[in-house]
Amino acid sequence: MNRKKYTIFDIVLLLVMIGVVILTLYPFLNILAISLNNAIDTARGGIHIWPRDFTFANYIEIFGSNDRLLQAFLMSILRTVVGTITGIIASTMLAYTLTRRDFVFNRQVGFILVLTMFISGGLIPDYMLIRELGLINNFMVYILPLLITAFNVIIIRSFMDNIPIALMESAKMDGANDFTIFWKIVIPLSLPVIATIALFLAVSQWNMWFDTYLYARANENLTTLQFELMKILDNANISSGDITQGNAEIVAGQTSPQSIKMAITIIATVPILLVYPFLQKYFVTGLTLGAVKS
């Protein structure tokens, strides 16, 4: 049996990678430990990656005493699901159109897309546009502004350019129209890049809170988990003791602003962490194949 000989470089590289993993996981494990630790005990300090006085009190307080957080959590899930699905549909359709050689305005549309990556109208024009469209305190304000982004379209287009044109021409000779070719040929072959962009969109939608602050904070039914989390973080930074400011900060019994803050951070992070492993293989494949032309 041939045994692989490890060089000094291999050993050093392994140690460096172990160090990187530890540095990457430690902040998350520390937050998890604090969220599962008794708030009074946490005030003593010394919590690293394992809770010293284990308790679910922080999570019970969040879901049991604050209806707005639960509603915000559901709204975040809703906007993430709807925003991801509609974004994928719109981006793939536009990308497919730009791959068609018979599309007259191919270059013009492509140029405008790239231009939006470098030039922005600014916050005030954006707000005025959203207001004129009647999207203030409207659920669609979470969907329409993020429906199509230049980066996503370019990635999908680069991937679709690798699909053999012969497949589409053969399907057209068999009587298939453009819509059939798109749904029956292009979409199945583009699943890796679609999964990649879906992950991008889901993470973006899930983490958004500034649009809620600008356009939907007057409507309590449209509040999102990230927005409520930002209010808690903001009030926790201002507060120096156990004070309560509306629904923005929760202090009761065995909980404290720091413990509640860590628990909500875990709640906001875990859903994306649960989704990523199922899309990881598509994520890697989509990026590598979409970046190289044959």
List keywords for this structure.
mainly alpha, 294 residues, MetI-like fold, 13 helices
Helix/strand structural class? mainly alpha
Number of domains: 1
- CATH topology call: MetI-like fold
Percent range for β-strand residues: under 5%
Helical amount: 55-70%
For CATH, the homologous superfamily is named as MetI-like
Name the helix and strand elements from N-terminus to C-terminus, one letter apiece. HHHHHHHHHHHHH
CA-CA gap between termini: 40 Å
Membrane topology: Multi-pass membrane protein
Domain ABC transmembrane type-1: 73-279
Family: Belongs to the binding-protein-dependent transport system permease family.
Transmembrane segments: 7-29, 73-97, 109-130, 142-160, 181-203, 260-279
